TrEMBL record:
SUPFAM superfamilies: beta-lactamase/transpeptidase-like (SSF56601). This is Beta-lactamase family protein. It comes from Planosporangium thailandense. Residues 32-398 form the Beta-lactamase-related domain.
Length: 420
């Protein structure tokens, strides 16, 4: 039986229910704002927005500080945020929507649609100038892309010879200018893999390749598929690939910590990239969104693939996606190659597009087993807890996301306020 859902606003978001009637202690929820306000008061964050829901109702919605600190423009409920890797769950949902129609199987080799990946090789030894590679023992399959077990990597990892090879081709934090998604896939396919597919876990451009797979399989560009099949049906009218016109004033500034005092300092070069149409539609990191829009997306997941009469996925598919798909039931701590990721590793599995809590003890935060989540490079984050029927969203714009333990602290404060 599907649960009813509270009315959801289009561009702004506010509390819709008394938290005390939904199992929260409202006084304890207020600790969230007091705690995170200290980051703004100390200059470590310019501003933030937080949303907590239970059983489809918003029990806490707050903002603090400035979306553009230099101009003293405050965070408003309709602020636009660069969500970076929180694009990945949307791309994963898009892929599974196609999977549900029978257009591919998760075990299919991706070279069936992307022939450039037909004969991938794996780095074995040597330097970036003279790498020695061997043929992969396993082809890249669709499920490898969804679980980051493909052997692909990110250039910005700075963790291996293969990462260096990506950077040498111009793929660092951003791709080279004027390179589109098909061109990028051609480059990534001829670079060596970090490991044989299915043998380890490495955060990577895999979700960008998945976006290209969606384009080829569906016959639509990634932005068109997103708009027509996900964003418009869910009413996510503020989610887009770049910001233009009057909406520029709603876009939060992008910041990084000053190397001396740690104060949030404007990252102009990266921040202004959100103001132009991208040549490469990145299913791994390309979207800009609002709290209200991502709230709709998270509620769709919590409700088993449906929201307000619009069904994107079946409940069984959502449950399947949010189980641990890592080989032999291992956690990320056992399989990770050691590079950066938007998650802790021990006790965490990985599903089809989401990290999944297998054991909350190693992280020392009382999450529920089965909670799933992800975050973005600018310290944004979300999670869905099916056990407690709870979701939480955090938006700010500080890179890198490893600067402060914002995500674990939000979990700590939310769960300690849940008393039912």
């Amino acid at each position: 039986m599907e649960r009813s859902v509270a009315p959801l606003p289009a561009t702004a978001i506010e509390r819709t229910a008394d938290p005390d009637r939904l199992g929260f202690d409202s006084n304890r929820l207020e600790r969230i704002d007091r705690h995170f306000a200290r980051y703004v008061d100390s200059g470590k964050l310019a501003g933030w927005q937080i949303v907590v829901t239970r059983r489809g109702a918003v029990v806490h919605a707050s903002t603090c500080g400035y979306r553009k600190r230099e101009e003293q423009i405050p965070v408003e409920p309709d602020t636009l945020w660069r969500i970076y890797s929180m694009t990945k769950p949307i791309t994963s949902v898009a892929a599974m929507m196609l999977w549900e129609t029978g257009l591919f199987e998760l075990t299919d080799e991706i070279s069936r649609w992307l022939p450039e990946f037909a004969d991938v090789r794996v780095y074995d030894k040597g330097s970036a100038l003279r790498p020695y590679t061997v043929p992969a023992t396993e082809p890249i399959r669709v499920w490898h892309l969804l679980t980051h077990t493909s052997g692909l990597t990110y250039g910005f990892m700075n963790n291996s010879v293969v990462d260096r090879l990506y950077r040498d081709e111009g793929y660092d934090l951003y791709p080279p200018e004027n390179v589109n998604l098909p061109d990028a896939c051609e480059v990534w396919a001829r670079l060596p893999l970090l490991f044989d597919p299915g043998t380890a876990w490495g955060y990577s451009v895999a979700t960008d390749v998945l976006g290209r797979l969606i384009e080829v399989v569906s016959g639509f560009s990634l932005d068109t598929f997103f708009d027509e099949r996900i964003l418009e049906p869910l009413g996510m009218t503020d989610t887009r690939w770049w910001v233009a016109g009057d909406d520029v004033e709603r876009l939060a500034g992008l910041y990084s910590p000053h190397p001396i005092d740690g104060h949030a300092t404007h990252a102009d070069d990266l921040g202004r990239l959100a103001l132009r149409k991208p040549a490469l539609l990145s299913g791994g990191s390309g979207l800009i969104s609002t709290a209200a829009d991502y709230h709709r997306f998270s509620q769709m997941l919590l409700r088993g693939g449906e929201l307000a009469g619009v069904r994107l996925l079946s409940p069984r598919t959502v449950r399947f996606m949010t189980r641990n798909h890592l080989p032999h039931g291992h956690d990320l701590g056992e399989l990770s190659t050691g590079g950066f990721a938007e998650t802790t590793l021990d006790g965490m599995g990985f599903g089809l597009g989401f990290a999944v809590v297998e054991d909350p003890i190693p992280s020392r935060v009382p999450s529920s087993v089965g909670e799933y989540y992800w975050g973005g490079m600018a310290s944004t984050a979300f999670w869905v807890d099916p056990v407690e029927e709870l979701t939480a969203l955090l938006f700010t714009q500080l890179i890198p996301s490893s600067t402060y333990p914002l995500r674990s602290q939000l979990r700590q404060l939310v769960y300690s306020a849940l008393i039912e």
